User: Fold these one by one.
Assistant:
Number 1:
Amino acid sequence: MKYSFTSTALAALSLSGSASAFWRMPCRGRTALERVDPIVDPGKISGHAHTVQGSGAFKESVTFDELRASNCTSCQVTQDKSAYWVPSLHFQYTNGTTVLVNQDGGMLAYYLLYGDDPKPFPPGFRMLAGDPFQRNFTGLPVPDPPKPWTGGNVTQEALRLKAVGFNCLHYSVNPPEGTLYRHFMPDKDFLDENCSDGLRLELMFPSCWNGKDLDSEDHKSHMAYPDQVITGDCPSGYDTRVVSLLYEVIWNTQAFKGVDGQFVLSNGDPTGHGYHGDFITGWDEDFLQSAINTCTSESGEIQDCPLFNIQSEADTQLCKAEVPEALANDNCEGPSDGLCGGVQVQYGPAYATMGSSNSSASTTSAPSYTGSTPLVPTLSYQTSLESFASDKYGGGITIEAVSGVTPAPSAPTPVTTEIVGTTTFTSAGAVYEVAIEEVDVYVTEIATATAAAKHKRHYQHHRLNRREHGLLAQ
């Protein structure tokens, strides 16, 4: 069953210079799955496993020049020798045994060109987002209040917590959830019942830079979030806007439907609040500046940028980092007795200790799954946000409907497009001129549908995404 919906598409032109151009960097291959983190644990073995995309030079301690010198990348644009990594997702059976959940389609790294004049990452630039020790959503409303946010919702701590997303994917039933809509891991029963196409983990990186430091002691303090997480104004002292970076990774949680156990991140987190990610630029700075200036399509497709050299998905699978000798016997894929590296499962809500299973257990930890589930808020599957999947792996940035403009009830009507008027509105200090374009769409499953009809529906799906992206995003 395909989903049916009627939507009002809003195409907006900002009078303040806000951009809607972007590109999605597909990194289909996995360069490594190992306990290595050259930002947090340089030169040594990391405490927990990461799934790594990008440059084949990835290792315990790596420089910008080494990333650039690699003869391969697991991303499709060969000029991108950056390193991208996040904790892997595992399934833990009731006896404590863990296995890696299959990672569908590698990673999508979104390069969003927000701000009046976004800058490229300079050589040596690195940063991380999220906190692997976090185990609760401290004092913030659930779900997020309507934007624009103010007060306690725009502190850097609040924005960091809101920069994590767990998107339940169900392409054939219900409208899709919005990016960064849910900031925690849904429980197993919810995933089984609602998320037939898996779980998309999302992470937004801060895009406001202090303009001088390539890194900082905590790998965060040289960066800050704009006041609406993705868009908005930068705080004082962080006036340089760099290109905005967002990660998406889809995990096939449905492979474990009906199986007793729980999902847990490699850092021992079953709540999702401790999701995090790291980035080291591997772009030539001048080339990235040219891409920012030139790759201004609103489609997000790398094929629409004439600068990019694009390799096949098959070739991205061939790029592998060298496994450190100390990790030769690691079994992060499983089946294994517990998580890779002996990491404890810690439910919180207290701040985690990240100790191994051989160290003194925290009062908030459980060495194996006991049948209990983390205490997390409940959010319904339906949302007020609209999203259109941007490629076959289900990637997509969401567009928030303008207050007072909501989708009409589902109805089996023909596809129609009509400009019904224009208006203006103000958001976060920016004045927008809006063309309101009414688009009525229905997609239902028909047993005798021809391949040509299915192809037509697929094209309309992507055309809507290109029209809407970025104009009222987040």
Note: Residues 1-18, 357-378, 380-391, 398-474 have pLDDT under 50 and may be disordered.
Number 2:
Amino acid sequence: MDSSDADNHPLPTSALATAFLALREAVLAQWSARVMAGIPSAQRLGAPALAAAMPLLYDHIAHALQAGAPGAFAAAREQATLSDYGPDELIHELQIFRDVLFAAAGARGLALSKRDAELIGRSIEDAERDAIHGYDAVGRQAKETFIAALSHDLRNPLHVASASAQLIQLKTSDPGITNLAKRISAKLAETDAMIQSLLDAAVSEARQKLTLQLAQVDIMALIEEVCGDLPMVGQRVRVEGDAVKGWWCRGSLKRVLENLVSNARKYGDSAQAITVTVSQADGSMLLAVHNEGRPIPAADLRRMCRGFQRIEDVRVKGWELGLPYVQAVAESHGGSLAVDSAEGRGTTFTVKVPVDARPHVGS
């Protein structure tokens, strides 16, 4: 279609938008058919990646034609999350849409002015940029989630090995073995510090909901498993409260427990027992880990409660490490994380999650 001819016989704005909307179903059907025939990833998935976004884009273009000006479009982003798709295939879907749209307008005899064609082209370009931005964001989130999970999985055996090395020191009188155990502990501590920094950076950067695998979980059985896997070097762990079963992600809750109990062991009073308490109220399960000893300084506590951000210069080193992940797990279940710390009552971290997290996951 020659744009100069269209400029000689332009349709009024309202008439053009009405005629454009009348082509909607035919254009979308032809677009879907061409995508399914020409893009192998769409064939494997059984639908175009932008199937849900394209009707919104079409209506967006109609509104732009009605108003005579482009507007912001951000609906393609949510649909650009399919791992089987590459960015070039997302662009290909939008290019097919552009070709089908202009061909249908020409076949119907719609007189598009140069400005009308530019509005349509600009809207499709905006959708292309948005789709790629969403694709990149999903890639970053997947990478950060992987780093966070791997970091926690690496930390847990390190904690077991470190506690075991400390037990060896307590149970031997051989100076050579004692020194070797101390060297092992020191190297494990160095490795743990590096992994914790990686974990903290990854999770605090992501700040998004985690992908959870829900199943029925017996929280008391999980607590027993975690405490059994973490030698406490003479420090007791007292478990109290209700036997609660719920729909949660077992793996992520296990990491939460390991993190909180390990922190309580490292930064609490080793002469006092760590207390893990489970309670249930108003459809939620409350999991609290408490330790006696020096509290978190008030200024640092306020900063932690503003989002558990990393604290560089604190007297109690390490409390913030891993807490962004704990908070992310709680919030991804539809819950929250709270901390209470004061002189005379010690420190308590409380994770609150719905007993049935299924309605909150994926929303």
Note: Residues 3-141 form a domain with the Globin-like fold (CATH 1.10.490).
Number 3:
Amino acid sequence: MLTPIFELTQTEKSISLKIKAPLANVGKAELVVEDDMVLFHSSPYYLRIHLPGCVREIEGSVGKYDSDRGEFNFEMAKCTPGQHFEDLDMIGKLLLPQKSHAEIKPKIEVLGEDQINVDDGMTDDEDWFIEQEEMCEENLMLTASGRYGFANKLCGLNWVDRDEFSEILDLKGVDFGSIRERTRERRENEGKEFCEDHYLADFMEPDDLLREVLAYVPPWQAESEFLCFVSAKFTSEEREELKKLGNRDYLLDKTEQKIALLSLVDIIFSYAYNHRMTMGDNSVESAWTINKLSATLSWFQSYTDMKDVKVTCARRAIIYPLCRHWELTQTVFKDTHTLLSLGRRQLIKCLLEIHSLFNASHPRYMLNRLYITDYCIWLQKCSEKTIQRLADLFSKVTSIFHLKLYYLSRSTEKTRP
């Protein structure tokens, strides 16, 4: 059976469901509404949706079919008029039923709507993520040896060792070495590949392209006297892609959740750099740029604090791309903060674009399997409060200004980062 493309909208009293099913047997179409579940069947299509609230059929109401568009339109009444149904555009989240907390083992949570609240044993005053001390670093270094992928949940995947993986991964010997060893090896490699002449040439004599790139205004930002955010909405193509990705549950402890969130910043920074450099028109180098700038994707890096994330992003931005300029790096940091501040939907849109780029760039499709697909699904269940905390933390950590002076003086000091 095929899962059709669908779209949900709401008013104060009703929910409208639009289903695109051009091959449907209209005469045998059936819609069943039961509490929070809506089931549609019309061969060869089958759809089961689990809503965040209860609905009922409207007496005397019938579905409509637009033969020109191949679309069904149904309307259902909210059992509680005025109730706002959240995340109706999070396609993957609607495809599977929500699990109750009683099904979750102690100290492990399904990261859904209430991932950082009293159900986690925490209060709003306990901002564990804001703390900068590396209280869990030793445990991470000892237990994460040989692990990689989303939230460091994977290990021992034989297909990762294929020869073609060396094209996209700087780290050698995936199944060996602790996170500390990977970090040391990465920093040594960055130190060797930093080119003082290239950096100083771009810094002292910025060209016309750089000036144009710095002046570029991304589509998620409107140019006005004050910064005006454009609300992120999924296109029909993006909704279709989310449907294809499906849904799954992620059992992450707090350390794994922290790893996932910090690595997300690293990936979004690399996306923001590519978007600004191409001014929104991706090139054949875009997949390479995102892959190379992200230490998560090129070194299977796991972070323990936001300062390490920002330092690593800044280092790689002035070592590997064609354009290596400090002001550009700072501008990309601002872009990254804006994207984080816009919340889950904007981040998912960015990740879906990365997913498409990697699918078209063999063998980077493997990075989708290891990271991007999981992020696209997990973020649909992640709370907006968590993402806003992440954005706030990103803006607070600003102790990387020394890198500019460091790299400018490196040619005389001859030190290694």
Note: Residues 202 and 325 are 6 Å apart (CA to CA).
Number 4:
Amino acid sequence: MFVSSLNSYTNRVQILLAEDNQKLARLTKQSLVEDGFVVDIAKDGNEAIDKFDINEYDLVILDVLMPEQSGFDVAKKIRKVDTTIPILMLTALGEIDDKVKGFYAGADDYLVKPFSFEELTLRVKSLIRRGKRADPIVLQAGKLTLDTNKQMASYDGRQLTLTAKELGLLNYLLVNKGRVVSKTELIEHVWDMNYDGLSNVVETYVRYLRKKLRQCGASGDFIKTMRNLGYIIEDLHVS
């Protein structure tokens, strides 16, 4: 369970670190433990899945290039059973396509090797802070509701099965309902990235959301596209 004070209770935060480089894994664990976290190490993708199935974690750190199963594969499998746990990818790959692939797999953030342990700790604390369980807030637009505490959305009483990024996108659009949100703003707030031409990421996830909403009976323009401006969910009222 996420804690209410990171400074006082980080020792209660359980982290799964999947890294096949034994020296780097050992040093990374040592740094995180010194900052008060509890860390389990998995040496490959299979062991990461096994440990995740057995234990309860608050955050997962995945190296991309691992034996048995890649970090991308592990992230996808984790997302099938847990849509909310923060996932941080460690990668030596700096190409845009690899970053996009990681986010599509379900990662919430990434860190390119070589990295400083100070930066790693800051990223971890930021992800945990965003993932903390808060007082329940229910966002609504027409027949659509989103319980931000339970991370559950429904339309006209029918539950939507959404990925972590789909939930994040829907959350941000609902928080800003009645206002046009640009692709740049969505990338910066939902994907925590600077805009660098990855507008197809937003378009792809909006398409996913629209499809799932239509399956529950929503109209095709529930999330409206404002040409050259962005997207909007209007401040609808239940009829």
Note: The two ends are 39 Å apart (CA to CA).
